[in-house]
Amino acid sequence: MLNILYPLLLQLPIGTRNPDDNSPIDLTSAFDIIVYIILPVLMIIFYILWRKKKKKDKN
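^ thats the sequence. predicted structure below, dont judge the formating
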């Protein structure tokens, strides 16, 4: 019974995008560079600075 039900659970609903339809990141686009490279780096830097400030204020 489980062998019949399992493939049915793995199907994508109608109208949703298939994960294989995704295209790679276009590094010639300014938007992609900002969203996928600059923002994550800035978030990491600000997190590290925030932790240092929080630690400094605690002492």
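The CA atoms of residues 39 and 45 lie 10 Å apart.
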